Amino acid sequence: MLPDEVVRLLSEAAEWRLYGLLFEYPGEEWRAQVLALLPDLREDRLRALGEAALKHATPGLHIALFGPAGSVPAREVKWQGGVQFGYLMAELNAYYEAFGYAATAEEAADHFAIELGFVSYLKMKQALAVSEGAEQRAAVAAEALAQFVKDHIAVCAEPVFKLLENYGPEYLIEAGGRIVLLAGPSPRSAYPLALPDEIDDDSSEMTCGPGGGGEDLIRIQP
Questions:
Q1: Number of Cβ within a 10 Å radius of residue 196
Q2: Distance (Å) of CA 195 to CA 18, 88, 109, 217
Q3: Alpha-carbon gap, residue 222 to 218, rounded angstroms
Q4: Residue 15 pLDDT more than 60?
């Protein structure tokens, strides 16, 4: 039997994975992933959110909400207050590379779905370390997770939720509210401000839907 802490971490990993999937493009592979995840969701309400997504999510709805001209921007750069895009992407990629995270969704590193999936991944890494009695590895994963949620998830969670309240279906509104409660208030940006032309350039690179050196910024080890 697994220790209670491991069970808790695995349950939390499944919850965060669901949230990430809710912001991904709903193709056939996505549907299979949601179906496979449902049995791992211990809370009835979370399973209901997954089932609602399977019933109501469509490519058209996803593009209308999260696409390049959508009502709910899902890229962190949009919510960081005009940061230099390179600093943000370098830090995110440094996190992902340090822990060996390879997202399944074909989105940019600062897409909310990718970031939510990374939180789930860190929960899994922490659970594995705890199950193996590797206290230092578990502590590193836990510390990185807490910092990532504070510096990145919290930046997106509240503004995304507020827009979902106006434009999103009920299951996404509920999921957004749950993420806000878990992430806490949005912090002030720690990145240098971008020049106006840099902001315009970054915005033009935003994409959504299917598609084909951060060592100086963070120092973490898997």
A1: 9
A2: 36, 15, 21, 20
A3: 12
A4: yes
Look up the domain containing 67 and give its range.
4-205
CB count in 10 Å sphere of residue 112:
29
pLDDT digit string, tens, across residues 92-105: 999 999 999 998 88
> The domain that contains 45 carries what CATH number?
1.10.3480.10
How much is the pLDDT for 66? Answer: 97
In this structure, is residue 38 part of a structural domain?
A: yes
Q: How many residues does the chain have?
A: 222
CA distances from 176 to 156, 161, 183 (A): 10, 5, 10
Domain for residue 220, yes or no? no
Flag whether 52 is in a domain. Answer: yes
Model confidence pLDDT, tens digit, residues 177-205: 999 999 998 886 555 655 444 434 444 34
β-strand partners of 193 = 83
CA separation for the pair 14, 93 (Å, rounded): 23
Number of domains in the chain: 1
Structure tokens at 82: 């005009």
Q: Which residues does residue 75 pair with via DSSP β-bridges, in sequence order?
A: 111
111: β partners: 75
Residue 218 located in a structural domain: no
**pLDDT value at residue 3:** 92
